[in-house]
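chain below, 426 aa
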Amino acid sequence: MSRTTRLARVTTAGLAVLLLATACGRSEDSGPDKEAASLGEGPAKGKVTMWSMGDADPTLEALAKEFEKQNPGADIQITPVPWEAAHDKLTTAIAGGNGPDLSLVGSTWMAEMAAMNGFEATPKEISADSFFPGQWATTEYKDTAYGVPFIADTSVIYYRTDIAAKAGVDKPAADWDGFYADLRAIQKTAGRANPKLRHASGMQTGFNAWLFWLPMVWQSGGDIYDPQTKKFTFDSPEVTEALEYYAKIFEAKMAPTDKTDGRQGFHDGLIATLQQGASVGGNLHKDSPELDAAWQTAPLPVNKQAAGLAGGSDLAVFKSSDNKDAAWKFVRFLTDGENLAAYGAGTGQLPAATAAWDDARMAGNTKLAPFRKQLEVTKAPPALTTWQQIASAVDSELEKLALGKATPQDVQKALQSRATSIGTGR
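prediction:
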C-alpha cells in the first residue's frame, strides 16, 4: 500500500483521542500562538528528531544525510510511524508535550492539531509564495500557518487509452457535459468492442468519497462552508448541481457501487476511467510497466471553473521541541525546490513547491503534467477542527445517493442539518 493510500485510509482515525486532548487543560478562549520566531543565523546544530509516516523512507534518509553534511553539527534522527497509528500518536504526543521536534502530518489534520496548540507558527523566512496556494492553505488555521507543505496530492482523470479509443474518444473532454458524454460512449462499448469492460467510471462512493465530490462543488462555483458567516452552505444551488452530477453517473450504472477495487479494475480493463492521485500511476508503472502505453492522465473536467482538492502531507515543528531552530532549518532544506524535486523523483510523490516542477526530473514526465496543472487550482478543505466528522457525514450521505436510497435533495437537506449539528469546533 502506498504512503498516499495509507493517508487516505486513516484521516478519520483517532477522533476520540483528539476530542479528549483538546478538552483537557485549555480554556475556551485559549488557542495556538500566532507569533512565529525568526530563524537564527548560521548552520543548524544539535539533534533533531523527526517522525515520518508509513514505511522507512530511503529518499528522506538520503536528504537528511545531505543536510548533515551541510550542517556538520546537526544530527537528524528519523522514526517511521505507521499511518494507521499516526493520528493517535500525534495527538497523544501533543497532549503530553512529549513529541518529536518535527513530524510529517496529514494535511487534513493540521487545523485540529494546531487548535491543540501543538505546533509552532511558521517562520517568516519560509515564504508562502514558494508553494502552490492550495497546498499552503492546508497549513493554515485562523489565518496563521503552522507548518510547511511537503508532499502535495490531488486527483486527475486516469483513462485507458485503448478502451476509450474503441468508443471514439481520443482524450476525455475538458468540461462536465462533454466528459459525461464520453463516459456514455465508453459505457456503450461494454461487452461489445470492449468485452472485459464493466464500468466507464470508477467514481468512488463510501469511505473518502468526499475527496472526489468536494471539488465538484468548487467547480460549480460554490462551497460547503462560508468562513465569513461561519455557516455551512450545503443548501446552496452549487451543491445541488454537484450532487446531481455525481448521482447521474451512478444512475446510469457507469460506476460500481459494490466497493470494487477501482485501481485493480482499471489495471484489468474492467474500468475505463478513474479519478485518483499520483500513487495510482506510480504503482501502475512499477507493477505493470507493460501497460504504460495503454493509459494516460488528464486534468479534472471543468464546470463553471477549474478546481481540485489539495491533499498530501505537511511538515510541522512541535511546540514542545527542544531544538526548534534546527528543526525549522531542516524543514526549509527539505522544502527547497531542488530537494523536493529529488524527493519526488525518488518516491513518485508530488512536490508542493512550484520550483520543483521546473526540474527536469519532474518536467520530463508527461503523465505528471496534468497534476502540475491541477495543483495550480486546488483548494484546501475548510480549516475546521470538526472536519473529520463533517467528512464522514458527507461520505455516508453520498453512499445513500449512489445506491439510489436518497435523492440529491434528500442528501442536501441531511448534510446541511448534520453539519450544522456537528458545528465548526474551535
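The mean pLDDT is 91. The chain has two domains: 3-154+310-379, 156-309+384-422.
thats it, cya
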